[in-house]
Design goal:
The protein is about 40% helix and about 10% strand. By secondary structure, the chain is an alpha+beta fold. It folds into 3 domains: about 10-195, no CATH class; about 290-350, no CATH class; about 360-430. The chain has a 5-stranded antiparallel sheet with strand order 1-2-3-4-5. A 5-stranded antiparallel sheet has the order 6-7-8-9-10.
Length: about 425
Amino acid sequence: MAVDAASRVPRSMAAPDRDGELRRTFPAFPPRGRPDGGGFAETWWGNAWVTALEEGALDAKRLARGLGYAEQGHVDAITVTPGLVLAYVRGSRPRPYRVQVRLRTLDDADWERFLDTAAERPGHIAALLDKELPQSLADCGVPLLPGPGDLAPRCSCPDSGHPCKHAAALCYQTARLLDADPFVLLLLRGRGERRLLDTLSRLSAARAARAAQDREPAPLPGVRAAEALAPRGLPPLPAPLPVPPHPEQPPAYPAAPGGPDPFALDQLATDAAARAHALLTTGRDPVGGLTLWQDAVRLAAARPGSGLTAAGRTLYSSLASAAGRTPSDLARAVAAWRQGGPEGLAVLEEAWDPPAGRFDRARPLLLAADLPAFRPWRNRLTHPHGHVQLRLGRDGLWYAYESEPGTDDWWPRGIPDLDPVGALTGLGPPGQA
């Protein structure tokens, strides 16, 4: 029986369940042109990778074809492990080609030299955490970036070029990975991000301890006992220091076997600094009256993103478990908190009977905006198609919600508004709301 060619196409290499400290899989990049200025990469280290590729290539025409494949999005998900970059690349045939590019990993002596250089200056570690690779760190005598001929491509296609256009396309897309995160280059050279950061934290702490031991204590000034015990008037207390404009960031907490979770310590220190700053500026604790669940939602909502990183997922799981809820409950509550704070969370979780007035005037206003007749129930108005809903909060604001038609899975959307029509702004044209 004939087999359709498309069914023989390998599945994407994206396999997050197999990723770990020494394996990272990145989804395929969308098609794009070169940025302004002509180069394919955007950072100096990404361009150094491209230079190593182009100066080690034997055929400029194959490079040009590979660049076109990269710009057109022919490279599937990319998997990076120590010494290896692997991906499927679509060519002229229906079945993609399996492409790999090898790069020598660093030995222990090279890593020791690199880590010593990185720990010498706090700015090096801060730059790496900001996804930057300082030029001084790359010039420490360790061959961190590849040179011409260091990249060893291999492809399942019949082309014997060095590199073939499929391998060139993978190399160009790898430069985009390096642009976004230089830890990809360090993983390719043999070390994972968490191990590197833990080692750098220990080295920095050891250097600081040695520096403190080397400093001799200053001699204490002597005072006669009669002078110290003589009655005297104390000077007035100095004026209090001005309140800082914003709370500071906590220090970095290194992980230690058997010790507390550094991510949890960072959460506690950051929240304590913010609450202390609020007490100094307003004289009251902004979260003193919150329930356990409300405080868990507030802490999760203060983190950027939606809990998609590993640290974010850990935070969501621990907070939800402490409050007796599920991570899905917490994600929905975070969306409501970001929409309207404690009142937005109350609108999500509490249905109530509003008095006559604002609620009764809402339906005529929606009809006047060429919207259909919404179905009322307590403080909620639901679109007849069941995909848009307005909820009136006790603060007098209207909160918009969306759900897939035919389901009861409502999620907060948009910005609360005194006008019900205004609350629907951004959810689609009035005729499609």
